[in-house]
Automatic annotation (TrEMBL):
Its EC number is 2.3.3.9. One of its GO terms (biological process) is glyoxylate cycle. Gene3D superfamilies: Malate synthase, domain 3, Malate synthase, domain III. Keywords: Glyoxylate bypass, Transferase, Tricarboxylic acid cycle. InterPro entries: Malate_synth_C_sf, Malate_synth_sf, Malate_synthA, Malate_synthase_TIM, MS_C, MS_N_TIM-barrel_dom. It comes from Saprolegnia parasitica (strain CBS 223.65). It is an enzyme of class 2 (transferase). Residues 179-405 form the Malate synthase TIM barrel domain. One of its GO terms (molecular function) is malate synthase activity. This is malate synthase. Residues 426-497 form the Malate synthase C-terminal domain.
């Protein structure tokens, strides 16, 4: 970073100038965004809007982080896992206007939710164009799990997004899929833009820029603005988003309640407040999405202090039909059915391009079985990464065009959602998780947010569960099945040694640090950002 940029950051922090906005540059020209794209994405009026958004909600965002820390401390101070679990209860009202409410009707264009393309970083231009042309209903334009937020990627991604919203992105055909940007989660800041001496929250930066540039056009054409909202932990956080939406609509002159958003239920605490989350966003809701790996990782994260909160070999013991995940999906589907909200399920991670015919056939069979099960259960759709799976998954959900009404009787208990499967930790599971973490961190070092391993896409969600399992196994010295060994840093070093040359020194160092650190980093992406990986 240039000396003048460092000075500007220091001065902004010290003086806390009311409306100061500093746009920092990278030290390396190769890592810096194109100047013309930067000027297009961040003209003075856009910066002024971001400044107003950040200043208006600074205290709310600070309160969000304090509440999260307080809740974590409460769980850490529990004397047992049973006591921690007892503090988790469903929140289903009462509501000021009674219990007969439903979400507002959706625009016609958003009612078919069969297939969205997932993990599509706007910085990967060719993939974004292909996704928009895929025939899917929507594209999750991903600035969170599937995106590496280097400054160059951020600016290039928003440049692509604003052109895609106007139908001006080269190569996009007529009648493309809908754009559903997923802004960064609240844990990530945009450190290159300071307002009032503070980095702008990545969530507000990504949401705000898309709204500033494209909301009016999307409303005029009836194609948005629509969003995915990641990693909410409570209905209070959904309420914050509702206030952000209302403020933005009023400030930009967008008709009230034009924004629609799908909330990703990818945190265990949010699972207990799904009904209240829909209520908080009832005028803005486009339903809920049920994932797997971020959600499962959040259980390990929240109950990090307890040995019993351990997950065995996830490849052998974890799927959406595993009881704790099946119960979570049932609650989500029943909640959405009751409130007339769309319910969608997780992303098919398979990448068929380099697979053998036998491997591809096996992956297709797994896809059909999983998505048929979800469609019959009441899901309205799902996500895929591989575009070749779009038609296959569309047909599965089309066959259940009128999903059965999900029974709300005999609902699972909170304990049902917390009962992790029993099973073994295997040497294979340790080695596989280590490969995922190494590959993901290595990809981040290349400014890429996804990597394909063994014909599956790995993003921050799968990297989260991989590193969470490893950290937990190391901390509690879990025995490895059919051996005399326990999981330890010594074992990690031994597994790393023969493959170390395949990774950069930074990747190896950060992986070892991540697994050895005493205090569990709540978010992998925040850890990598704090370690300045993108600036090395």
């Amino acid at each position: 970073m240039a000396a003048q940029d460092r000075l500007a950051r220091i001065r902004a922090h010290l003086q806390a100038i009311d409306v100061a906005v500093y746009v920092a540059s990278e030290a390396s020209p190769a890592a810096s965004p194109d100047p013309d794209k930067l000027a297009t994405v961040l003209p003075p009026p856009a910066l002024a809007f971001l400044a107003g958004l950040a200043n208006t909600f600074r205290d709310d965002v600070r309160a969000l982080h304090i509440t999260r820390l307080q809740r974590q401390l409460e769980l850490d101070l529990c004397s047992s896992l049973d006591e921690a679990h007892a503090s988790c209860v469903f929140r289903n009202g009462p509501y000021p206007d009674g219990d007969a409410w439903t979400i507002d009707p959706l625009p016609e264009v958003l009612r078919d939710r069969r297939v969205d393309i997932g993990d599509t970083s706007p910085a990967r231009t060719d993939e974004l164009v292909a996704a928009l042309n895929s025939g899917a209903q929507g594209v999750q334009v991903d600035m969170d799990d599937g995106h590496c937020p280097s400054w160059k990627n951020v600016i290039h991604g928003h440049w692509n997004l604003l052109h895609a919203a106007r139908g001006m992105l080269q190569g996009v055909q007529s009648s493309p899929a809908l754009l559903l940007p997923r802004p960064r989660a609240w844990n990530m800041d945009e450190e290159h833009v300071l307002v009032h001496g503070h980095a702008v929250p990545g969530a507000l930066f990504d949401f705000g820029l898309h709204m500033f540039h494209s909301a009016a056009h999307l409303v005029a054409t009836g194609r948005g603005p629509f969003f995915y909202l990641p990693k909410l932990e409570s209905a209070a956080e959904a309420g914050l988003w509702a206030r952000v939406f209302a403020y933005t609509e009023a400030t930009l002159g967008v008709p009230l309640h034009s924004i629609k958003a799908v909330v990703l239920i990818e945190h265990i605490l949010a699972a207990f407040e799904m009904d209240a989350i829909l209520y908080a966003l009832r005028h803005y809701s486009a339903g809920l999405n049920c994932g797997m790996w971020d959600y499962t990782a959040s259980i390990l994260s929240k109950f990090r202090s307890f040995r019993e909160a351990s997950l065995p070999d996830r490849q052998a013991h974890v799927s959406m039909q595993t009881p704790f995940l099946a119960h979570y999906m049932h609650v989500l589907l029943a909640t959405c059915a009751r409130r007339r909200a769309p319910a969608t399920t997780g992303m098919v991670p398979f990448v068929l391009a380099q697979a053998t015919p036998a491997e591809a056939a096996a992956m297709l069979q797994k896809t059909r079985a999983a998505k048929t099960h979800e469609a019959i259960a009441g899901s309205n759709g799902a996500l895929v990464f591989d575009l070749s799976l779009v038609q296959e998954v569309q047909e599965i959900f089309a066959a259940q065009a009128t999903p059965r009404e999900v029974e709300a009787t005999s609902m699972p208990s909170p304990r049902d959602l917390l009962a992790l499967p029993r099973g073994h930790v295997t040497m294979h599971s340790v080695a596989f998780n280590l490969r995922v973490v190494l590959a993901y961190i290595e990809a981040w070092g290349r400014q890429d947010g996804v990597v394909v391993l063994d014909h599956c896409v790995e993003d921050s969600a799968t990297a989260e569960i991989a590193r969470s399992q490893l950290w937990h196994w190391i901390k509690f010295e879990h025995p490895i099945h059919a051996t005399d060994l326990v999981v330890s840093m010594a074992l990690v070093h031994a597994l790393l040694a023969p493959i170390s040359d395949a990774y950069t020194p930074a990747t190896r160092r950060l992986t070892l640090h991540l697994l050895h650190v005493q205090h569990f980093p709540t978010f992998l992406t925040s850890f990598l950002q704090s370690q300045r990986l993108l600036w090395q």
